[in-house]
Specification:
heterodimer; A: 352 residues; alpha/beta; D-Maltodextrin-Binding Protein, domain 2; nine-stranded mixed β-sheet; two-stranded parallel ribbon; 42% helix; globular; B: 288 residues; mainly alpha; MetI-like fold; 2 domains; transport (chain B); membrane (chain B); Putative spermidine/putrescine transport system permease protein (chain B); transmembrane (chain B); cell inner membrane (chain B)
Chain lengths: 352, 288
């Protein structure tokens, strides 16, 4: 026989409602409490898609953990705002310039321990050079993107960007907010002065680049090149190669002076409570099979020397010591120390 | 005392005097100028929407004018994307919760401020409206730091609280505007006729302040649904709102999907307004 429920008093109703409310809010946390969670950052777009669909779940299965990927910018201010002893991320994935800024503030560990990340032994020297905080798991080559249907001929040098015939169809970036633009500024110093740190030569060269169409994001530059609004521009190779097979009249130029490196860097936060898992994740991302899958999806050059890409990708990406030797790495520590001064100056140049 | 008849008699005379002062062609030019200015304002307001629609329907993966054709490929991509769909529903969920909380809190606060004889009412009103004066990105960052200090992570209720903070001023302001002209004798009459305070509120006060509350609720929904700066810091991984998802997307893929998402947002805003019109009859509140 069923026991009859008593009348529902106001107190009982309020208690039940409050319990239900608290339970609903707390349920996800309680359910997740047993799973170790590794909190990382990561890109959106194709990178984000494959990370969510394949690479992330495979890591979770193997290491019996939960991977929480934050793909909502900005990463560095969020990390800054969180406690150092309990940082919001365990592993930060971002470009080298931002990693250097984080390292200078003590928000990320400057180096990865090779004993804890065995795959570090197989990476190209650039990936762990003195220009890198943490480890670069991939790189893109920053060079020139061109339209092939405008009769520009064979472009071989960075200096051709200054040719007057590209007035009105030349493309660059808002230097204060775009790392390709910042790397390009350093290249200007190398091309027309004594080296990357010759800012005066770089500023003079930038003055001479005008008129130039400048954008914030590389995605916008890709579209301007595809639409023909821009004929010759600074861009990374993956921004051109990702349209491979779509019959687009665009091509990537690897200038004879060398290509700039746009590294995808992983670092571990000092206050992470998941150090073992964080190191395992870095090691996992350097595995040849993971590197191959990601490289062939987003057209990034893998950092692991042992990766064998399919012929189509191997022909275009930086997959041999000879090709990798063309990479020019930027001294981001030096750049970041002068960023405010550089920003003010380039803003004046392009505002005028 | 002036009568209605004398009023109507004096009108043609005034018009006559006006026509003497401004000759026909000048009056025509004035009318054309007035029309031109209004058309210019309408074009200025509607052109961005038109461009977004063209971008969304153009089959090329970049903005091209004139468009080369009409295609629904970007809408297909938008509706097929799990990330976009999740973001759309999550944004709607947050906007609905925000609207409810901001409306209840804002309307109650406005009533208390208008009727409560509270000390420092002006200061309280200024404090409640202050989120409108702060850059929203700072509000987002400040809330983010608070949640970090409280060690609560980035829960959905935290995002709703952030949105409520920035939408509350709209409800307070619009409700206060209605309460300003509210005739309290109507409530007194109801009480004198034996109605309880609760009944008086639901049958007299609420119907009369409804235009202000409703206008504030609509603002709250739209501001929350489109909210970007506050959400930027408060969204948690895997639970991003539509504006944040769009921002992350356009950094890597600036194609027509952005246009399709914008069209869907615009249509949703229309649906909300039309839905409210059908259910509660916005037309009766046009005086607002």
């Amino acid at each position: 026989m069923m026991k009859a429920l008593g009348p529902l008093s106001r107190r009982r109703f309020l208690t039940a409602s409050a319990s239900l409310g608290i339970g609903t809010i707390a349920a996800p946390y309680v359910a997740r409490a047993d799973d170790p969670t590794l909190r990382i950052t990561g890109w959106g777009g194709k990178w984000g898609e494959i990370m969510k669909a394949e690479i992330g779940p495979a890591f979770e299965n193997e290491f019996k953990c939960k991977l929480q990927i934050d793909s909502a910018f900005p990463y560095l201010p969020k990390l800054q705002a969180s406690s150092r002893s309990a940082p919001i991320y365990d592993v930060m994935h971002t470009n080298s310039n931002e990693q250097w800024a984080a390292a200078e503030m003590g928000l990320v560990e400057p180096k990865i321990d090779a004993k804890l990340v065995p795959n570090l032994a197989d990476v190209y020297p650039y990936a762990v050079s003195d220009k890198i905080v943490g480890v670069s798991i991939f790189t893109s080559a920053i060079g020139l993107g061109m339209r092939t249907d405008k009769g520009y001929g064979n472009i071989t040098s960075w200096k051709e960007l200054w040719d007057a015939k590209y007035n009105g169809v030349r493309g660059g970036y808002v230097i204060p907010v775009n790392s390709l633009g910042q790397a390009f500024l350093m290249m200007c110093g190398t091309l027309f002065g004594k080296g990357q740190t010759d800012l005066d030569a770089a500023y003079t060269a930038l003055e001479k680049l005008k008129p130039i169409k400048i954008v914030d994001f590389t995605g916008a530059m890709e579209k301007m090149l595809l639409s023909g609004e821009v004929g010759l521009c600074v861009i990374h190779d993956s921004g051109i190669y990702r349209y491979d097979g779509q019959n687009q009249p665009t091509d990537f130029v690897s200038p004879s002076e060398g290509v700039l490196s746009l590294e995808q860097v992983l670092t571990i936060t000092p206050g992470s409570k998941m150090k073992e898992l964080a190191n395992a994740y870095v090691n996992y991302m350097l595995r040849p099979e993971v590197q191959k899958r990601l490289a062939e999806t987003v057209w990034y050059s893998p950092a692991n020397k042992k990766v064998k890409l399919d012929a189509k990708y191997d022909a275009k990406l930086l997959t041999t010591p000879e090709k990798v030797s063309k990479l020019i790495q930027v001294d981001w520590k030096w750049y970041n120390e002068r960023k405010d001064e550089i920003d003010q100056r380039v803003n004046r140049i392009f505002r005028a | 005392m002036q009568t209605a008849a004398s009023n109507s008699a004096s009108l043609p005379a005034a018009q006559q005097a006006a026509s003497v002062r401004t000759p026909g062609p000048i009056r025509h030019y004035g009318r054309y100028l007035y029309l031109a200015i209004n058309i210019a304002i309408l074009v200025f307001l509607l052109a961005p929407i038109a461009i977004v629609v063209v971008f969304a329907l153009n089959p090329t993966p970049f903005i091209q004018f004139p468009p080369v054709g009409v295609s629904l490929r970007w809408f297909e991509k938008f509706f097929a994307s799990r990330d976009f769909m999740h973001a759309l529903w999550f944004s709607l969920e947050v906007a609905v919760l925000t609207t409810l909380s901001a409306t209840i809190l804002g309307a109650s606060a406005a009533l208390a401020l208008a009727r409560g004889n509270l000390p420092g009412t002006r200061l309280i009103v200024a404090t409640m409206l202050s989120p409108l004066m702060l850059p929203a990105i700072l509000t987002g960052l400040a809330l983010f730091q608070t949640y970090v200090l409280l060690d609560v992570g980035r829960p959905t209720w935290g995002l709703v609280a952030g949105h409520t903070l920035v939408t509350l001023p709209y409800v307070v302001r619009t409700t206060l505007a209605v309460l300003h002209n509210f005739d309290t004798r109507l409530e007194e009459a109801a009480r004198n006729l034996g109605a309880s305070p609760l009944r008086t509120f639901f049958e007299v006060t609420l119907p009369l302040i409804k235009p202000g509350v409703l206008a504030g609720a609509i603002f709250a929904f739209i501001v929350s649904f489109d909210q970007f700066p506050v959400s930027l810091f408060l969204v948690s991984p895997g639970n991003e709102t539509l504006p944040v998802t769009l921002f992350n997307y356009l950094k890597f893929d600036l194609d027509g999907t952005i246009g399709a998402a914008s069209v869907v947002s615009i249509v949703l805003a229309f649906v909300v307004v039309i839905g409210l019109d059908r259910t509660v009859g916005l037309r009766s509140y046009v005086k607002l």
